[in-house]
From TrEMBL:
Location of the UspA domain: 1-139
Name of this protein: Universal stress protein
Xref: PANTHER family: STRESS RESPONSE PROTEIN NHAX (PTHR46268), UNIVERSAL STRESS PROTEIN SLL1388 (PTHR46268:SF8)
Family statement: Belongs to the universal stress protein A family.
InterPro entries found in the cross-reference section: Rossmann-like_a/b/a_fold (IPR014729), Universal_stress_UspA (IPR006015), UspA (IPR006016)
Length: 141
């Protein structure tokens, strides 16, 4: 039985597919869904070398992300809450999964390959490797 489901959302177009996938799961009355977003630390961009491409993600404000997660929360038919944290995305998702004793992590994958995957890394791959529970990775298509 899935009691605690951690849903990692990044504000991109894949987030809607993650929520759509979540809606197809069967919940018990005790299920709690935690919608989370991790804001990268300001110094994480400074660490990227100037001669390498930087991640191409639109920067949404705290307020925009909070409103987006609240809109998703309103659509859910189960008990839910929102977690907005700052840090390394994969590390924070794993930390939240441990705190909430998650039975499942739901996360999107941008489908990076080749050099982009090497430079930008893959949050979903790191979460799959290090998570304390099962992980459901939602692909873009």
């Amino acid at each position: 039985m899935l009691k605690n489901i951690l849903v990692a959302l990044d504000g991109s177009e894949i987030a809607a597919r993650v929520i759509e996938t979540l809606e197809h799961l069967v919940f018990s009355k005790e299920t709690k869904v935690i919608l989370c977003h991790v804001f990268p630390t300001p110094d994480s961009e400074i660490e990227l070398p100037a001669d390498r491409p930087h991640p191409e993600s639109p920067v949404l404000s705290y307020f925009q992300i909070e409103k987006l997660l609240q809109s998703y929360q309103e659509e859910l038919s189960v008990n839910s809450e929102i977690e907005l944290v700052t840090g390394d995305p994969a590390e924070e998702i794993i930390r939240l999964a441990n705190i909430y004793k998650a039975d499942l992590i739901l996360i999107g994958s941008r489908g990076l390959t080749g050099m982009k995957r090497i430079v930008q890394g893959s949050v979903s791959s790191q979460v799959v490797e290090e998570a304390p529970c099962s992980v459901l990775v939602v692909k873009q298509n």
